Known about the structure:
Elements lengths: L1 E7 L2 E6 L10 E9 L2 H8 L9 E2 L4 E8 L11 E4 L9 H4 L27 E3 L2 H4 L1 E2 L6 H6 L3 H12 L6 E5 L3 H12 L4 E5 L3 H10 L3 E3 L6 H8 L5 E6 L6 H8 E9 L24 E4 L6 H12 L9 E6 L4 H10 L6 E5 L3
Parallel strand pairs: 9-10, 9-12, 10-11, 12-13, 13-14, 15-16
Antiparallel strand pairs: 1-2, 1-4, 3-5, 3-7, 3-16, 5-6, 6-8
The structure holds NADPH dihydro-nicotinamide-adenine-dinucleotide phosphate and zinc ion.
Amino acid sequence: xxxxxxxxxxxxxxxxxxxxxxxxxxxxxxxxxxxxxxxxxxxxxxxxxxxxxxxxxxxxxxxxxxxxxxxxxxxxxxxxxxxxxxxxxxxxxxxxxxxxxxxxxxxxxxxxxxxxxxxxxxxxxxxxxxxxxxxxxxxxxxxxxxxxxxxxxxxxxxxxxxxxxxxxxxxxxxxxxxxxxxxxxxxxxxxxxxxxxxxxxxxxxxxxxxxxxxxxxxxxxxxxxxxxxxxxxxxxxxxxxxxxxxxxxxxxxxxxxxxxxxxxxxxxxxxxxxxxxxxxxxxxxxxxxxxxxxxxxxxxxxxxxxxxxxxxxxxxxxxxxxxxxxxxxxxxxxxxxxxxxxxxxxxxxxxxx
Length: 353
Ligand code: NDP
Ligand code: ZN
């Protein structure tokens, strides 16, 4: 079968691969539409997860089931499915401990285009199909379904990690597609005031639609100076980090009230250490919490978040800024994500209607 792959660090291209085999609990699917992710850029060009050879790219998309294993109960060939970017082993001890995303080792719930072939091929393999796939509601378009793989669950996980509560003042650092979903999630969770950091005009417009009240540019000086100026020197209750670098944590700690919480979902593709400013961290006693996490993945989360979209509580359609049709557009869509033009939020490639 044909597949679009990371050939080695810094190089992508088309390769031939064998169709994957289906184990008793697995499914084989064909992708209907796929989206490109900033994580692909970190993986391919920054080598952030280390060397990968001939690894099929893609971890965001929706699909049709073509084969299921003998133990799969709830899915059959022909079913249209939502596919989470994170597909844990639900029988693992890590999942039983509540950390499905780390089943089999740290971050090992992230299998597609990391430790096994991803979605960008004629057929792809899904482990633990009953635990990881979700039936695609009829109300959800192929394009919107792609946003449910990673953007909605990750952006919302930032909100969970930051523990946003009714009435909180929330700072969202980074308003690419992930941060935009954090803005939407913080608004759904009842934030009273949302300050957003980012500059791409299209993202700023969409962030307003999702509930951002004020904007800060990281290009206009330190984020913390701007946040403290807007909050009478107090800082904010909660912070979601969905963009920036290892240095962003320094700014976040300085922008946070004592007792506040930071939820990081940013993928730190480079830099060795994260600096925590000692005095602003209350000389070690400020109760300023830092949570960083990969989203949990799995079927229940897909079904619940899918229901938000299907029932009109969350409109993800503004995220898909560039839509292509046909396999040949995959390389172009990936390049677009690397270059990040001003009008880009998320590229989607429809492979089959
Ligand atoms: P984008 O690149 O589209 O957006 C990044 C945002 O951060 C933009 O708003 C950008 O501003 C802003 N930004 C850039 N530099 C700085 C800076 N120095 N300080 C503050 N803000 C800055 O990324 P995505 O939304 O696609 O993804 C966000 C991150 O989440 C990525 O690292 C991605 O790999 C990661 N991710 C994590 C997952 C998880 O499970 N934890 C899953 C999926 C993605 P501007 O508007 O100027 O461009
Ligand atoms: Zn992704």
